[in-house]
Amino acid sequence: MQRRVLALVEVRADFELSRAELRDADRGADDVDLGELDRVARQIAQTENAAVFHGWSAAIIGVAEASPHQQMVLGSATDRYPERLAGAVEQLLESGISGPYGLALGPEQYRRVLESTEGGYLLLDHLKRIIEGPVVWAPGVEGAVVLSLRGGDFVFESGQDLAIGYQSHDDDVVRLYLEESFSFHVATPEAAVALKS
User: Fold this and answer.
1) Is 111 within 8 Å of 138 (Cβ atoms)?
2) Could you tell me the pTM of the whole model?
């Protein structure tokens, strides 16, 4: 068996903050505009999710692309979601992967689930019962992924946790960046089923 060295990827996002806002924060203001910081933090989180679930070029093989299971089509009709999800759970069980499971939904699919009912009950509650676990909103995920929560099937290694750094400044703004580094490895490819949108 030949071992493969995992790539450590670095994600970085630049942003600027107003020096006036930073002075206000230093004086104790509780309404400081940190919108740019929020924007790049969301951008990095979405990039991380996309890498973990769908891969990143030659550096990371994601959960969905590593799965040997036939990808199912989730579609846009939420009345079919329970059937599709039950089919994904069946594939996992047939591979010897027991529950509980989790369901990561892309933003559009998650919104549809929240807006839907089934026989007077929330669709979200029905999906949770099928997988015996959580249903999560996961920006960066395309469609949905059902995966085992038993532990050890997927390995995320943080090289440098999310950190803020300084680039430069002038009279008006401070130029900063957020960055992190990580690697990801799918130890048990059979432990997930991807559902295309």
Assistant:
1) no
2) 0.88
